[in-house]
């Protein structure tokens, strides 16, 4: 086991929407951690060799039929345990205390009164002190397990935090992992550093070194291929693998005909600049021919997915002797979480290269499998990759094909590309590109009447879509300033032939989705 992983915390997931946030906070403290489902099994938990255990929150009540429970053996690993919200109630229940329904649900901001000198709260204030925390619970601790005492209270919860006499078990009723608990990071740091005695070894620089070594070991002197999209994940994966095996890696960048304005050229330039071995394949004609007469969104997605696999397979074979396929899979795709993952994967068939490795008998290299998106960006910065790749907004695999409603044709693509370029340019100029999750144009090929000069026009509509989001699972429409919307609308109508009306999409996800198809 390498150093960067030897200091490790395990988070058992009981279904909280915040479980991933706990993991991110621990990793930000430079301590490696993973999330296992609560029912992962004792053997798997032991084999992970954690130096501490965190029990996440969750929507259940410990007495609910079918509530997610663990048995006492999980708590007897000999390492400190922190129960958060439901995790604290579970700790109480399993160790022989009692949990009861609160008279009043405690939700939102609360003032936490910290008792004097508690090490979980070290560095928060002098002696007995107060801090703001975020609560979200319906149950409360009726009776603590034997040997426990309260270490903090709120007006509604006499036991808002507790610990046992040996200083091994801790419970907090609030959520230290959310931004609404301003001192939450300090509390989690106290747990991992002071209580679990973890060292901060998980740094991006050490990850790069470690990962380069692992990739070299795995690939040896063989050849690898990588499907490059120009997006953050595949780009960082490619650069990392290139750092490890240099010219043994061939990146294949397929132009599927539904890329944005100048995208093919920009991606080629950036990667050649970084010294990667890039194979550019212009398959746009092949893709576009297949869109003829196709209007159904799912059919369009399937066409893109299947044609990509065909083209990629052909090109990868032409590289000759490749035995490895590099993919930018991230940790959230790997976690076997019991939390709600959102419906998008089911509602739209996402384009990916699933099935390709088996079909081509390639072994997978997934250097980012342990990382969250913000860590991937940090790795990219660590490797001195250009900001315009690192900070890119996500762009879907099926590209502009799912941003043109109905049939995808060359003339429609031309209109959308121009309008989309204006949206991106203006959002960037206004300094909003990084804070907005995605901002783009959608072509609605319906005609509306307009007037330009003295002439009647009858042209298409462009919708501007801009959303804020943490992960794409849920999203809010971005409150783009009116003046900026006005500038984009004016420019699109004046500069893009074929458009005489611009609308702004004010729907959030759910119930809408980010993409229109
Ligand atoms: P929706 O439209 O489902 O999109 O709210 C959620 C996020 O996923 C992106 N998206 C895709 N990404 N292949 C991808 O690689 C796809 O087929 C695909 N469909 C949607 C979308 O841009 C948003 O970020």
Please give a quick description of this structure.
The protein is an alpha/beta fold and 517 residues long. It is built from 17 helices and 18 strands. Helices cover 33% and strands 25% of the residues.
Helices, strands, pairings?
Layout: H1 3-6, E1 8-13, H2 19-28, E2 32-37, H3 42-47, E3 52-55, E4 81-84, H4 86-94, E5 98-114, E6 129-143, E7 148-153, E8 161-164, E9 169-172, H5 184-195, H6 204-219, E10 223-227, H7 232-245, E11 249-255, H8 263-273, E12 278-282, H9 284-290, H10 297-319, E13 322-326, H11 331-334, H12 344-347, H13 356-360, E14 363-365, H14 373-382, H15 387-390, H16 410-429, E15 438-452, E16 455-468, E17 476-477, H17 482-495, E18 499-504
Parallel strand pairs: 1-2, 1-3, 3-4, 4-9, 10-11, 10-13, 11-12, 13-14, 16-18
Antiparallel strand pairs: 5-6, 5-7, 7-8, 8-9, 15-16, 16-17
This protein binds xanthosine-5'-monophosphate.
Xanthosine-5'-monophosphate binds next to loops.
Describe it for me?
- With 517 residues, the protein is α/β, with parallel strands linked by helices.
- It has three domains: 3-195, Class I glutamine amidotransferase (GATase) domain (Rossmann fold, 3-Layer(aba) Sandwich), CATH 3.40.50.880; 204-390, HUPs (Rossmann fold), CATH 3.40.50; 403-504, GMP Synthetase, Chain A, domain 3 (2-Layer Sandwich).
- Helices cover 33% and strands 25% of the residues.
- It has helices at residues 3-6, 19-28, 42-47, 86-94, 184-195, 204-219, 232-245, 263-273, 284-290, 297-319, 331-334, 344-347, 356-360, 373-382, 387-390, 410-429, 482-495; strands at residues 8-13, 32-37, 52-55, 81-84, 98-114, 129-143, 148-153, 161-164, 169-172, 223-227, 249-255, 278-282, 322-326, 363-365, 438-452, 455-468, 476-477, 499-504.
- The strands form three sheets. It has a nine-stranded mixed β-sheet with strand order 2-1-3-4-9-8-7-5-6, sandwiched between helices. A five-stranded parallel β-sheet has the order 12-11-10-13-14, with helices on both faces. Strands 15, 16, 17 and 18 form a four-stranded mixed β-sheet that branches.
- Strand 1, helix 2 and strand 2 (32-37) form a beta-alpha-beta unit.
- Helix 6 crosses helix 14 and helix 16 packs antiparallel against helix 17 (482-495).
- It is globular, with a radius of gyration of 26 Å.
- It starts with a helix and ends in a 13-residue tail after the last strand.
- The model is unreliable at 340-346 (pLDDT under 50).
- It binds xanthosine-5'-monophosphate.
- Xanthosine-5'-monophosphate binds next to loops.
- Residues 301, 344, 348, 350-351, 394, 396-398, 438, 472, 509, 513-515 line the site of xanthosine-5'-monophosphate (XMP).
